[in-house]
Write the structure tokens for this entry.
Amino acid sequence: MCGIVGVIGKAPAAPLLLEALRRLEYRGYDSAGIATLVDGHIERRRAEGKLGNLAGVLERDALPGTTGIGHTRWATHGAPTERNAHPHSTARVSVVHNGIIENHAELRAELEAKGAVFETETDTETFVRLVDDFLRQGHEPQAAFAAALRRVHGAFALAAIFSGHPRLLLAARQGAPLAVGFGEGEMFVGSDALALAPLTRRIAYLKEGDWVAVDGEGARFFDAAHQPAERRVTVTAVSGAAVGKGNYRHFMEKELHEHPAVLGDTLRQYLDPKTLEVRLPRLPFDPARIGRLTISACGSAFLAGMVGRYWIEQLARLPVDADVASEFRYRNPPLADGGAAILISQSGETADNMAALRLLREAGQRVLSVVNVPESSMARESDGALLTVAGPEIGVASTKAFTAQLAVLACLAIGFGRARRELSTLDEGRLAQTLLEVPSHAAAILEQDAQIRELAMEVAKARDVLFLGRGAMYPIALEGALKLKEISYIHAEGYAAGEMKHGPIALIDSDVPVIALCPSGPLFEKTASNLQEAAARGGRVMAFTDAEGEAALRRFAERVIVLPRIGEFATPILYAIPVQLLAYHVAVLKGTDVDQPRNLAKSVTVE
Ligand code: G6P
């Protein structure tokens, strides 16, 4: 993953680079560093750990220079130490890199045979030494950079500065995003428009395989065949305003409390509250004419896709194949001509899902993406995009973006049902009405915070936790387990309630909380029986249900949290909120780094 940024400015570059890195820290926070040109020579400052450590280093040891590059790292090759932190430099060139150079071992051996001495275990250093070798042979920076690019394989973005060239910055994109920002007599490059937004809103995106030579006045683009190319400058809609926590302790807490507004905004986008009709923009495929639909996503977005599968199959009678992108892309899936796919992603940059997108398009599929970042690679490269109106999500664990994805998928399922004549206008109105009740019920759930915090006190003592659900509640059980694992580091598993007796029941004893997602409805009795099986073995059942399910569960459950009653269709959206809130409170009680949990990153741009 990693975030990269570069500046050719009028003022000192270091503070600008640091600010841009703050906005890129969601990509990784193992270490950070910047390099600038000082009197024509490369100088750098680096620090292990979060960006705050680098800021401290710069305070003690300022870095002058108006041209520079910066990096925030999510370690792939080499431990997250200061020595392995970017930028990586020789006396001639300094490089920041996002992604993986796959043939690094082979190149390293070749360069070592020529006498190069490596300082780190990183794949990045191979590129640095390769460029350095071409420079040593007398090539100009541009020729050396281009020659080195021809030798490296993998998915990456790179930016480089060169000794003796105070107004030159070279950057390349191959599988990882890169944007060029145009200022007034200042130029920028960055992993995304968000990083550059406080500096400029005039942005050009590199296309796949492009590289660019930037000076203080402008940029010259080259395509994958190294031919000069034109790339359009657009004005980004991304806000330059800093995203703050407001009065909340953590971004995650703030984002959890944004659920009602985000759900309202997203539903309003695709649902007419007056006519109770779903209004979808023109889709890249006709849902009435497709025989099968593929859904691909990663992490929580995949779990949203699983719920989407239940909804679309039920309402539109359309077979859906939902898979995690990292499996989908390598399993050589048989895809019928004229097929269609939905990709789901908050960032719109996740590497495996981007690869799935390219595979799908090469296989002639029409691809619709559901994304939160309108200018993301996925939104731009898909045949159509539906936006989740969640706003920037900073906490690494997805919260409001997840429920916004569900809201869009719910509207799509209704729209598909209507297009395929499986839903009557009456059904559509009834389902739309149910969805419109979600935001106010979400607000009511957030008011149950104290109750959920009490439950969290019990869960925080556990070593293992089981989440159970049936039907569209099963993916929400998986979401509950995923959230708890990633931010509190407690081992948790989500299971289909009916499947529990085929394995996880062996784990059950009086130390294992069994958290049940059990709204009233057609699957209630079945789930309740599975919970009784757990209780009969000493399991501590803690259930989320509604007023109708309460009495039956109280007979054997240790705790019952009664959530607002809503039509069965919308329960996955609503029940996602308390399980996320539960994970949040457990993490706070355990004292973990809620917004930036260990080893994780928000945008996963390596496969
Ligand atoms: C990371 C994040 C998750 C997210 C997943 C997919 O693992 O920590 O919160 O669900 O990536 O990201 P995407 O941006 O594609 O939704």
In short: The mean pLDDT is 93.
